[in-house]
Amino acid sequence: MEGPGCLLERFEKSHRLLIQALMSGSTGATLALKVLQRSRGSFNWGGLVSTLTREEPCLEGEAHSLAVKPLVCLFPVAFKRNLLAFLHRTHATVPRDCLLDLVRSFQQDPKSDSWVQALLGVLNRDLESGDTAASIQLTSECQQRVKLLSEKIRAGSGPGGRWMGYFNAHSENYRKRKSDTVGLTQGSASDSEDGGSQSKKQKVTHAGDTAVDCGTEEKAAEEILDGPVLDEGLGGAGDCGLLGGLMASGESEKLQPSLASVSVVSEGQGTSKTGSVGELPDRIRSYVPKLRELLESDMEKSEPGSSEDLQVLNECDPAQVELLCSVLRLSEVPEQVLPQFCTVLLALSPDLSCSTAAELARSLFLSKVLSLTEPASRFLMTAVTSFCSHYPRPSCCSLIGPILQARFTGSVQMELVCRLIEDCLDPEHYVLVFGQVLCVPWREEVLSVIHTLLDRKVALSPDQFEQFIDRLSQQAAHFSKSMKFAKLVLAVLTKHQSSVTVTHKNTLACSIALNETFLKKCLEAALKRIAAV
């Protein structure tokens, strides 16, 4: 019997774009709706449903027993959820007999996901009542909240209503922030070196003020609505024909707010707040001149007892360490001084606490790494690798994580991260970095980091591997022409084949079907070898 094949090729060419959209992760239903809206003429629902409900042979369970199921049951769970959500939104235009055939096909899969079962119940209610609003069942409490919300919207829709006041205030605040930003930009152009540093601090403060303004506006909106606002999850965006255009237009704007904090960190030279030396306790403040002198001196020729002044770091709480790093301007320490300074830091006994080491890694290295436009200097690499080797976990949290999350990092930064993974981290830290990779948007540069982790044979839990396979499925359309992505899938099929289940094989088959590189045949062969085991 044929192993897990290319499910996409079972469909007519006119239906494949819609199926690709439904396989695009958490935003698949929305993308499929856009594909349907852009299709010209009447859509052939009968042909699509007949293919989805066609019985196909498959291997079932751990014993790999032969079974026959509708094709729709062989797709990943994410596809099934998207398909049912899509049908719920378009059921008024879909022939009733087509919907009934699909519902019967879904019911032939007794092990279906609980969320799929819930969506199937919604679709059944759609079939029972042609009215979409009548098919939505609300509790009495929810009905009361909807009624109250409707009254508030009607009361605030007039010229002097609260809604108009909220949007007018929002527009006024936007214009004010825009003019303030222009003023800051013009002012920073004529500043001296010290003034430039002050301008960067002003930007951080200004960003904080903006966050307060936004928080006030959100609070006002919540007061009007008297309830939380739901938002759609993030999904991959890419440029892959019509589907890529739809994804890029709908998702690229959503990624910017979630990473705003990283840009603030880079403008602030790696520190999130500024303060004066007067805010430190007297005992710690007395060490500031000595530590400044140590940073400005030749440490190789300094007096033996001078490095003991750094022991004050062990007496500080996290907030004091952050303030001390800001006062000492550790982010501005020249790269040539970093190796000697790190040697002194790493010689301290006892070792620094995790929170102190994390703050030092952020202050000393983050802004320098984020601003790189060419490979790191020998001084910077020596300092970073020595510190990361001695304090791997703090470095993962405060250095590697923010680099992965930063919006404008390139191959230079990711090469440094790969070097740190190979030279400084232990297997337990590979898992920590892999978890960070799963939480950031994927780009070509990030794929290099994932490939490095797979080469180090990172030990993933079943949960993490499941998330990873789902993410590969979501990004397959975006990286359809990427050699790095193809090599990544090949690494999964060759180095982690023992973790691949029957469900994963179907998911990976769909991802491979979208691949357009010359490695596609190799990927299909590797998948068949796993299926034969």
Protein model, in words:
By secondary structure, this protein is mainly α. The chain contains 26 helices and 2 strands. It has helices spanning 13-22, 28-38, 45-52, 77-90, 96-106, 114-128, 132-135, 140-155, 162-189, 193-225, 241-258, 260-267, 282-285, 288-296, 318-328, 338-346, 354-370, 378-390, 392-405, 411-424, 427-437, 444-455, 462-475, 483-495, 502-513, 520-532; strands spanning 55-60, 65-70. The protein is elongated and about 85 Å long.
Task: Give me the Rg, rounded.
Answer: 28 Å
Got a strand count?
A: 2
**Percentage of β-strand residues:** under 5%
Mean pLDDT: 74
Structural class determined from secondary elements: mainly alpha
Strand order of the largest sheet: 1-2
Report how far the terminal alpha carbons are from each other: 13 Å
Shape: elongated
What portion of residues is helical?
A: 55-70%
How many alpha or pi helices?
26
Which key phrases capture this entry?
mainly alpha, two-stranded antiparallel ribbon, 2 strands, 2% strand
Could you outline the blueprint of secondary structure elements for this entry?
Elements: H1 13-22, H2 28-38, H3 45-52, E1 55-60, E2 65-70, H4 77-90, H5 96-106, H6 114-128, H7 132-135, H8 140-155, H9 162-189, H10 193-225, H11 241-258, H12 260-267, H13 282-285, H14 288-296, H15 318-328, H16 338-346, H17 354-370, H18 378-390, H19 392-405, H20 411-424, H21 427-437, H22 444-455, H23 462-475, H24 483-495, H25 502-513, H26 520-532
Antiparallel strand pairs: 1-2
